[in-house]
Design goal:
The protein is α/β, with parallel strands linked by helices. It has two domains: 3-188 and 373-403, Rossmann fold; 206-370, Glycogen Phosphorylase B (Rossmann fold). The chain is 47% helix and 16% strand. It has 14 helices and 14 strands. It has helices at residues 17-28, 66-91, 107-115, 128-136, 140-156, 165-173, 220-231, 250-259, 274-282, 303-311, 321-327, 339-351, 353-370, 373-403, and strands at residues 3-8, 32-38, 47-50, 53-58, 96-100, 120-124, 159-162, 182-184, 206-211, 239-244, 266-270, 286-289, 315-317, 332-333. Strands 3-4-2-1-5-6-7-8 form an eight-stranded mixed sheet, sandwiched between helices. Strands 11-10-9-12-13-14 form a six-stranded parallel sheet, with helices on both faces. Strand 7, helix 6 and strand 8 (182-184) form a beta-alpha-beta unit. Helix 4 packs antiparallel against helix 5, helix 7 (220-231) packs across helix 12 and helix 10 (303-311) packs across helix 13 (353-370). The longest helix is centred in the C-terminal third of the chain and has 31 residues, at 373-403. It is globular, with a radius of gyration of 22 Å. The two termini are 31 Å apart. The relative contact order is 0.11. The mean pLDDT is 93.
């Protein structure tokens, strides 16, 4: 039975939906799967077997700031991941190493096993140089360092699994990968598990909702400013705003809602998962993608695109290249990239129930036609087949060298 090691540093499994869906898909296809990931308060167990998948967890490094903090934080994580990879190799062995960024440093964990003929799959979740530029509004030495790490990750990867077609283009053009070695796997939810659930909330108002990370680049402040403007606009029915997620900007956003006089209609749920997460999304009458245009947001495929669509939630978004490519006319786009533009687009749906129904039907149809997790599984397995071909080539070359030695 073939076996693989998946290394992810961003989130633990099974919380990381993309990684967990990939792991279970590989298990179902006959692979023995081992995952290395961080431990958290909710997932503290250092070793576990979950649904037939071995999980090794390591301490989550403290978040630090600045270049020195970056090196200390990721250095500690790399130490634990290297240690656990050796433990997994000694106990179980594995045929493929599958690393998931961020950061673009995990190739260091895989190098000893690549030298032993284990091919490396790079699961390209995020574009770290663009994320840095978006967060800090500059480039500089750290941006250069991130570009170097990215280039090395592409260099050592035998196969790349890209999160969208834009990332695939980056892997080919910026990473120098052959197109045959790059496979696009979208983070589409498995509709066997991701579906509407009953909500106990009384629905006497329209719920405008956001789900996702609450960071500086995510634009949730645009939504709160739109809520403040719409509250005083004539013809707008009663509504509330629900923000589902956590992140470093949460205290700032709560203060902004207070200062704009909309704290009473803005509910911040914090991080949710499982049934409570699905119940919150099921309560949305309008789903907002408030991420503003920048070099990062324009290129990423946001999970909420797929999640809103899967549940038939009418979508309002800014016109970003990757978002529009995925949704087409299934979303209502702001006329410009300002809070006022978002206000206009949200207001149109708030005032018109038939328009909300129309966009709900468009979102469901988009999901029905285009967003299928089984299709992504087929592509993931094709990527693994390609990696196994690389191993076969390594073994053949080693046999030839042995014959001539």
């Amino acid at each position: 039975m073939p076996s693989c090691l998946i290394v992810v540093e961003n989130l633990p499994v099974p919380l990381d939906r993309r990684v967990w869906q990939e792991a279970t898909a590989l298990r179902d296809a006959g692979w023995q799967v081992t995952v290395i990931c961080p431990a958290t308060e909710k997932y503290p167990e250092r070793e576990a077997v979950i649904d037939g998948i071995r999980v090794y967890r390591h301490p989550l490094p403290l978040e630090a700031k600045g270049a020195l903090g970056f090196l200390l934080e990721y250095g500690a994580a790399l130490f634990h991941e290297t240690r656990l990879a050796f433990k997994a190799f000694r106990r179980h062995g594995f045929d493929i190493v599958h690393i998931c960024n961020p950061p673009d440093l995990l190739f260091l964990v895989a190098l000893p096993y690549k030298a032993l003929g284990r091919p490396l799959i790079f699961d390209h979740h995020d574009i770290c140089p663009e994320l840095y530029e978006s967060k800090f509004k500059k480039r500089g030495p750290m941006h250069t360092l991130l570009r170097i790490f990215e280039r090395l990750t592409f260099r050592f990867a035998d196969v790349v699994v890209s999160a969208n077609e834009t990332f695939k283009e980056l892997a080919v053009k910026r990473g120098g990968k052959h197109p045959d070695d790059v496979f696009t796997v979208y983070s589409i939810p498995d509709l066997n598990k991701f579906k509407r659930v009953p909500t106990s909330e009384a629905k006497n108002t329209i719920t405008v909702g956001y789900v996702g990370v609450v960071g500086a680049q995510d634009g949730v402040d645009n939504l709160i400013r739109a809520v403040a403007a719409l509250r005083n606009e004539s013809g707008v029915p009663g509504f509330t705003c629900k923000i589902v997620g956590d992140g470093p900007e949460l205290p700032t956003l709560k203060a902004l809602a207070q200062s704009l006089g909309v704290a009473d209609i803005c509910r911040f749920t914090g991080f949710l998962s499982g049934e409570s997460f699905l119940a919150a999304l099921s309560s949305f009458d309008i789903g907002i993608i408030p991420d503003p245009f920048d070099i990062y947001n324009d290129k990423i495929s946001m999970n909420k695109v797929f999640e809103y669509s899967a549940l038939g939630v009418p979508i309002v978004a800014f016109e970003l290249a990757e978002t529009k490519r995925l949704l087409g006319n299934a979303a209502r786009y702001a006329p410009d990239h300002t809070p006022e533009g978002l206000t206009s687009a949200v207001g149109a749906l708030l005032k018109d129930e038939s328009l909300r129904r129309n966009y709900a039907e468009r979102a469901l149809e988009r999901a029905r036609i285009h967003f299928h997790w089984p299709d992504q599984v087929a592509t993931l397995l094709a990527a693994y087949d390609r990696a196994l071909m690389r191993r076969a080539g390594f073994d053949e070359a080693r046999a030839v060298r042995s014959e001539h030695s």
